[in-house]
Structures are given as structure tokens and as C-alpha cells.
Amino acid sequence: MPEEPPASGSPPRPAPARIHSLDALRAVMMLLGLVLHTALSYVPELSSGGWPYQDRQASVWFGWLVSLIHTFRMPAFFAVAGFFASFLVARRGTGAFLRHRLNRIGVPLVGGWILLFPLTAVAWVFAASRSAAPPAAPGSAGGVMDLIHLWFLYHLLILSAAVALFRSGFVRWWPAGAARLTGIARNALGRRWVFPALVMVTALTLIPMEAWELETDGSLLPPVRLLAAYGVFFVFGWLEHGRGGGFGHLRDRCLLRLGGGLFFHTLYLAVVAPHFGMAPAEARVAHGAGMVLLAVSMWLFVLGFLGLFRRWLDALSPGWRYLSDASYWMYLVHLPLTVALPPLLAGWDAPGLIKFALALGAACAITLVTYHYGVRSTWVGKRLNGRRYPRAFPGRA
Q: CB neighbours (10 Å) of residue 169?
């Protein structure tokens, strides 16, 4: 596909240098998936999204941890992904960007699913056989084509292609309108009213949810409500880069935003928790109020973490660079481990927190060691990270 013309009559701005703090944020959000999936084995009486194993030392605090991480993890990831997607389109053009997405996301998605789906199924059966409570049926789609934890790559492919092709067509066929839209986005994202506007749009995507939380879906035909919910954050990141920003204005008051996110998440749980045994349609008022509070919490967390990482992790760090590269592999292969490791400790009467820490530590260690010795300097590492890195630890690289 040929390069599209500039979106405005002014000379194009040079692409900004890579923002290392956003790489670190993206890595942390991916690695929190290991925390979340390990913690699910210690959540009592799961209300949705069944898990095969429940430990005898389960605690409601793990339920709170899972809910908290789920509130901001994927929204923050999609905001950063949208920013980098806009960066790549501006730097390489739409055609090269789409080829890049297929190589770096599409191929790992297909290859990872072929390898990991049967491994996860075996781990699921093993975990269910040792559970202290009857397990729910595996998978979000319940069929052989369930994308398991790789669903977010599929959603990212869809959103990347949709936004990039929309931009390309808009710029090509109506350049004046594209320039006007760019100007509107540039001005709007700097206004004070943008936060309530973002909350309102996100709340409208959450209210149709068929659960008491932001849903996930591993089917090949994901519901439009989910693509819309994650798409709001993706487009937000895209527009932030398009206006020449890099979330740097969020450095100030980042801790205040994070505190506000925690406060509104607590209110959200207070509203929806009494209704967990009911379908949302049976308690529409509580569900609607909870989704509005959840939207506020989401955006406060996302903006707070963007500001926090921009404030403290902007400088290039070999350790963070290494972890950022490793995080993709670690997330791809972690699910069978986080399903199978907690049941290995089923007969031990230690506190749940200790068993959780041991299972999580083992999953992190196995995925990191396999990355370092089996992936980093191989063709697999080149596919995931864009190049082969020397097999050296950060301090010696």
C-alpha cells in the first residue's frame, strides 16, 4: 500500500524518540497477567469466568486483587498499544504497519495457540482433579477454538487494522476532513472536560456487559461491546501520539489519580458485590451504577499509571529493557504453568499467600529462564522482539 499524504498542510512533525517508560508500563501490564492467573486459584467461589482449581486456603483478598488488576491491566495495555500503533503508522506507513502487526502479533497468536491450547487443556484437567471445590467449565468460549489467554492479541489485531485502515482511507479521500479531525483531537485531549467525556464513553460500553465487570472473550467473533470497550483506550493512545503528545502531562498528580482509582474501585465493589449471585439483567440499577463507578476507576488508574511511569522510568534502563523484551514470551507461555503449579501445593497446609508466592515465583522463573536460554537469541526472539539479542544479562549486555 503506498504511503498516504500528510494529514495537514503543515510539515509533518518528526517522530518522537522511543519512550522507554511506556515500554516498561506495557511489560508490567503483561506480567501482571501471571499474577492474576496465579491468584485465581486462591479466590473462593468464583462468580464468573470459571477456574479449574480452588485451593483450601482461598481468601477473599485474592478476589479483591484479581478484581483490582483486571480493572486497569488491559485498558492500560491497549492505551499504550494504541500510542505505539500510531507511532509506527506515522513512521512506516499503513502497509508496513499492517505487515508488522501480522508478523509480531498474528504469527505468535497462531503459533502460540497451536502449542499452548493442548498444554492448557491438560493442565486444566489436572488442576480440576485436585480442586477443593467443583470447577467450572474451561474457557470463555467453551469450544475448541477458544483463544484462551491469547484473546487480547486477536483483539489488538482487529483494532490495529480497523483504526489504521480508517485513518488511511480518511486521509486519502478527505484530507481536509482528516486535518480538521486531527486539530479537533489535538485540542480536545488537552481540555479539562476530556476526563468526564472519556468516563462517559467507557461507561456506555460497560453497561451492555453481561457480567459485573469488564468481560473477556476468546471466541473468533468477539462481541462488539468488548471491541468497543477496549477500543476506547486504544483510540485514546492513538490520538495522544497523533497530537504530538506522549502522556508527559500526566506526570503531575499521578499518585492522586491512583488513589482516586482505588477509592472508586472500592465503591464499585461495594455496589456490585451484593449482587454477584444474580444476572446483571436482574439488577439493572446496581449494574448500571457499578459500571459507571468502574469506568471512573479505570480511567483514574490508566492515567495514573501512565503518569507514574513517565515520571519515574523515562530514562533508558538495561534491566527494564530486558524485562520489556522478555515480558512478551513470559505472557505467551505462562498459562499452563499458572494453572498447573498451584495444585501441586494442594496437600500443603501453609497459608494461601505463601503458596501463591511460591507458585507465582516458579512460573516467573520458568518463563524467564526459558526466554533467556531458549528464545532471546533465537529466531523466536527475533519474531517476538524484532531482532535477536545476545544471550547476556542486562548488566553485561
A: 13
Domain range annotation of the chain: 20-396
Q: Is the pLDDT of residue 142 over 60?
A: no
Rounded distance, CA 214 to CA 77, Å?
14
- Contact assessment for residue 150 and residue 332, using Cβ atoms and an 8 Å cutoff: yes
| Predicted confidence (pLDDT) per residue in 152-182, tens digit | 999 999 999 999 998 888 777 777 766 677 7
Q: Model confidence over 306-340: pLDDT tens digits?
A: 999 999 998 888 999 999 999 999 999 999 999 99
% of the chain beyond a pLDDT of 70: 89
User: Looking at the whole model, is its pTM more than 0.85?
Assistant: yes
Q: Give the Cβ contact number of residue 188 at 10 Å.
A: 13
